[in-house]
Amino acid sequence: MPVARRVAVRGVVQGVGFRPHIYRLAQEHDVMGWVRNTSWGVEIVVEGQAKALERFVRAIREEAPPLARIASLDSEPVAPQGLEAFTIVHSAPQAGAYQLVSPDVATCEACRREVLAPTDRRYRYPFTNCTHCGPRFTIIDDLPYDRQPPCARSPCARNALPVRGPLDRRFRPAQRLPRLRPQRRAAGRRGVAWRGARRRRASTPFTARRRALLREGASWRSRD
Question: DSSP characters for 74-130?
């Protein structure tokens, strides 16, 4: 007889490929339900045979994505709804909730191979990243983390790539690459700056706090 559980996962679980990870686990363990980001973490409702649900919940922690850090995982029984598929649904913002954000992460080996491959579209593209690497803390503007509407600034604003499925390591509603390669201009003693206008987004409490932390870090580095 099918049973159902609600699972709440807190920690660094947004912007790190966690929802696609849950989707893959659902396919592997043949369970139905949905997953979504919230302002406090990731919420999952899942239905299936009791043994399959046990294996599914255990795999969430044991097979977490490389950048994820699970602080807590709580599971409770709920009434089955007769769900017939597993889906990634729209996020649920909640006022006053708290959510950890991943730090920026160095380029992963898979992205490095793409950047160095002359036949790849990302050849020598400096902003190449995926769910396993790249900027997080410095680009996320709001939580819960989503791509539609955009919650992260992109260095490119044109030429959107096709939508990718949850089984792809770049799963997102759209990934953008530039039409032309970035050009550089001299920026005096501060080094090199990228040419091109940058549209500013409205400030949020999250972005204001992030800027304050970045300024604080810069002031400490200048003292060394």
Answer: EEEEE------SEEE---B--TT-----PPPBPPPHHHHHHHH-TTSTTTT-TT--B
